[in-house]
Amino acid sequence: MQKYPYLADVADNANETSRFPDWREAVAILVERAWLGGLIFAVILLFFIFQAKRQTPYYRSTATLMVEAQVPRILNYQDVLAINTRSLEYFNTHITALHSRKVLEAALEQGGFFDRPGFFSNLPRQAVVDAASGLVEIAPIERSRLINIKVEHSVPEIASDLANAIAKAYIQQDLDSRMQTTIEAVEWLRERSEEYRERLEKGLLELQAYREQTGSVSLENDQNIVIEKLKALNSALTMAQTERIQAETQWHAVKSQMDKKVEPAKIATVLHDESLVLVSQKLQEQQRVVAALQQRYREQHPELQQALELEQKLEGQFTQAYSNAIYALKNNYQTLVQREQNLRAALAAQEKESFELDRKLVRYNELKRNVEADQEIHQAVIARMKETSISESLPVDIIRLAEEARPAKAPFRPQVRQAIFRGIVFGLIGGVGAIFLLYYADHRFRRNEEVERLLGLPVLATIPLIRDKTVEERGMVAHLKQTGEVAEAFRTLRASLLLQDELKQAPVLMFTSAGPGEGKSLTSTNLAITLAQDGRRTLLIGADLRRPLLARIVGSSRGALGLADALRGDCVWTDVLLKQVAPNLDVLLSGRIPTHPAELLGNPRMVEILNEARQTYQHVLLDAPPVLGISDALVLLPHVDGVLFVVRYGVTHSLGASHALRRIQSGGTTCLGAIMNGVNLQSLATYYYYRRYGGYAYQQYQSQPAEPPAPVAE
C-alpha cells in the first residue's frame, strides 16, 4: 500500500493521457523549432521554383468539336444511314476515331506540317506522325456533347494550327464517309427498282389468269358472307351448349338425389320452382303447428284433428307440385339437347361450304399478296432512290467545329504559380515534418506535459531560468528578490506541496535528479527559503558529499564543518548548523568531502540526525546527489518521507530520467512529483506556453515596491 495514495492517482491519470502532444503543445513545438521548419520550407520552395524555371515552356491550344444531338432534317425523309446521335456508343465512336492515325496524318498533310520549320522537320514522314501523336490529347467534356482537341507545343502558333487542322480533317472525313455511303445507296436502289418492276408485271398476269379460271370477279365478297354466317351459327351453338350444360347439370343433380331416395323436401330446394317452394314453406309451417298442438292436446282433440287434416292436404299439394317440377326440369333438358344437335348440324354444313371457298382463296390470296407486295416495294424503292439522289447535294454536318483554337499567350507548363503553390504546400509539409521528426528524435524535456506523459509524475512547479551571474545570487534568489517570476514560482512549488494534508505529514524531503547540473541545490535552497518565509521552521541539509554547493550558495568557507563530519563523529550536527541563514531557516552544510560518501550516508547516525531534525523542524530538505552513476541518493531513500525529482529544461533526457525514476520507485519511497527547472521565459517558444496563466500575478508583484531582504545571519 502506498504512503500517499493521491499521488498514485495523479500518476495513473498521467499514464492514461495520450502519448502524443495536444494542439497547444504542438504549437509550442512548432514555434520552438521554427528556424528548422523555415529552412526546410525555403529549400523546398526554391527547389520547385528552380525546377519550373529550367523547364522548356509549352503552350496549349484547344479546338472544340460538337456532336449534334440530332441530325438536321432539311427534307421530310429519313437519311440513308439511320444514326442515333444520342447514344453513348455513337459519341464514343467519334472519340475513338479522333485518335486514329489516319485522321492525324490527314491533318498534318492538309496543314502542311510535314514541311513546316520547327515541327520535327528533320524526321521522316512516319516518324513525324508518331511524334505529333504525343502532342495531341482528345478529351470529352463531361455532361455535354463537346470534344476538346488539345495540342501542346513550344511554339503557340504550331499548337493552335495543329488543333484546328485535326478538327477540320475529322469533319471532312466524316462528311466524305457519309456522302460516299449515299452514292452507293443510290446505285443499289436503281438496281432493285428494275428488279421489282419485272416481278410486278409477272404477278399481275398470273392473278388475272386465275380469276378467269375460277369464274369469279372477286372471291373476297363471297368469303365475307360465309364468314358472317359461320360467326352467327357459332355464337348460337355456344349459347345453346351453355344452356344445355346448365340444364344437364341440374337434372343430373336432382336425378342423383332421387336415386339415393332423398326426401322430396330436400330435393325441392334444388329445383328452384316457385310454386313448389311456396307449398313447401306452408307444409313446414303447418308441421310446426301440429307438433306444438301434439304437445298440448291428445289425438282426439278437435283442434289437433283439424290441423292434421290440413297437414295431409298440404302434403298432397307438395307431392303434385314436386312431380310437376321434376317433369318440367327433365323436359327442358331434353329440349335443349335437341336444339344443340340441330345447331351443330347447321354449323357443319356451313363449314363445309366455307372450306370449298377457302380452297379457292388460297391460291387467289397468294397471287394477290405477291402483287401488292411487289407493287409497294417497287414504289418505295423509286421514292427512296429519288430522295437519296437529292441528299447528295444536301450535305449535313453532324460534326462541326464549335470553337477554333487560338495561340496561347501564356505557357501551359511549367506554371510558375502552380510550382510556387506546390512548393509552399510541400515546404510546409516538409518543414512541419522535420520539426516533429527532430522533436521525437530529441529526448530532452521541454514541456510539463512531456514530463507527466513520459514519467507519470505531476509537475509541481515551473522554475524560470535565473540569469544572475553568481552562485549565491541564484541560490538565494527567493530571499534576495522576493518579487518577480522566480520567487512566485517557488511560492507555487510551496503551495503545491502544502496543498494536500498528506504532504504536510512528510517533513523530510529529498531533492534529486537524473544527472548533475540540473538544479537540485538551487531548487532545494530556494524552496527552503520560501517555506521559511511562510513562518515554518525549515532545515536544509547538504547531502551531496561529492560535489557540495550549499557552502558557496550561503557564502560559507569551503572547509566548514557539516554533515560529513557529524556522520564521522567528529562533531555534533547541531553544533555545526548555520543558524538563521534566512528567517526560520537553518542550514547543515555538507562538510569536508569524505572518501566513501555512500557508506557514510548509510551510517546509523544519519537516521539519528533525521529523527532529531523531525522533532525540531517542520520541514527538512535534503540536497542529495543525482541518481544515475552513484548510489548515494539510493542509500538515503529509506530514511526520507518523499522525493522531489528535478528536471532541467532542455537538458534532462527522458530515457535517463525514466531509468532514474525506476530506481527511485524500486526503493519504496514515494516520488511526490517533478520540478521543471531552468525554463527560459524570454524565449518565443516558451513565453506563451509557460506564462499564459501567470502574467497577471507577475505584473502585480512587479508593480509593488520590493521589500528589502532580511539580513543573512553568519
In order across it, which strands form the biggest sheet? Answer: 5-12-11-6-10-7-9-8
| Rg over C-alpha atoms, rounded to the nearest angstrom | 61 Å
Number of DSSP strands?
12
What is the first-to-last residue Cα distance? 44 Å
What would you call the shape? flat
Name the CATH architecture of the domain at 454-703. 3-Layer(aba) Sandwich
In CATH terms, what is the fold-level topology of the domain at 454-703?
Rossmann fold
Q: What characterizes the major β-sheet?
A: 8 strands, mixed
What does this protein structure show overall?
The chain is of the alpha/beta class and 714 residues long. Among the domains are: 61 residues, no CATH class; 250 residues, P-loop containing nucleotide triphosphate hydrolases (Rossmann fold). Helix content is 61%, strand content 10%. The protein contains 26 helices and twelve strands. It has an eight-stranded mixed beta sheet, with helices on both faces. A four-stranded antiparallel beta sheet has the order 2-3-1-4, with helices on one face. Helix 5 packs across helix 7 and helix 8 packs antiparallel against helix 9. The longest helix has 90 residues. The radius of gyration is 61 Å and the shape is flat. The two termini are 44 Å apart.
